[in-house]
Amino acid sequence: MIAITLISLLLSSLSLRARAEDHQILVGGAIAIFEPNNVTVVEGDTVTFTFINGTHSVLQSNFVFPCEFINEAEPTSNGFNSGARPANNGTSVTNLTVQITGKMGWANTTTWFYDGADKSCGWDDTAAGGFNLREDSNETLAGYLRNGKHRYLWPDSPMDDLFQLRDFSAKKLKIKLARPVKLAPQDHLRHFLPIPVLWD
């Protein structure tokens, strides 16, 4: 029985390796920051981001907190983060290879990523993408980009310091006051109005 189990595991591993694929994404292309911005992956695959122009980065994110490094919202996530990669007009091309493991390889789960360069994600519609995007889901790329833009509606707002969004669902939003803050008289009430995450 043990021998059969070991053979089964070995065959499963060989099958996984046989179909493993490396998916290429160019960063800083002439048409878009990420080309392509969507790849379909399975566990065992890899995704290689190649930085070919400009100074960009790629960071893992999630749908609820778009354009934000996933480790900020989920400290145990151990998300991928390339750091800033200056390509110097193609003279300093570098790669970041991401191994697809666990949930990242599930067909019904999207792994989000974005460009962490200043005024990129939330400003440029080509500055975000995902592994296994699902247009039949409530969490679409259009929704992610729209929510990312909402982060920049009120520049320099103290809202990000005041509020931490937790326990979020389509029907319920709990807001936890992170710390007391003294505001100047000119600060407007609009700073305290939370921007909800929108689903399609």
In short:
With 200 residues, this protein is α+β, with helices and mostly antiparallel strands. Helices cover 18% and strands 22% of the residues. It has a four-stranded mixed sheet with strand order 2-1-4-8, with no helix packed on it. Strands 3-10-9-6 form a four-stranded mixed sheet, covered by helices on one side.
Describe the structure.
By secondary structure, the protein is α+β, with helices and mostly antiparallel strands. The protein has four helices and twelve strands. The strands form four sheets. A four-stranded mixed beta sheet has the order 2-1-4-8, with no helix packed on it. It has a four-stranded mixed beta sheet with strand order 3-10-9-6, with helices on one face. The protein has a two-stranded antiparallel sheet with strand order 5-7. It is globular.
Topology:
Blueprint: H1 2-19, E1 22-27, E2 34-35, E3 38-39, E4 46-51, E5 55-56, E6 59-61, H2 70-73, E7 85-86, E8 94-99, E9 111-114, E10 128-131, H3 141-150, H4 159-162, E11 163-166, E12 174-177
Parallel strand pairs: 1-4, 3-10
Antiparallel strand pairs: 1-2, 4-8, 5-7, 6-9, 9-10, 11-12
Order of helices and strands: HEEEEEEHEEEEHHEE
Give the overall pLDDT as a whole number. 78
Shape: globular
> What's the N-to-C terminus distance?
50 Å
Helix content: 10-25%
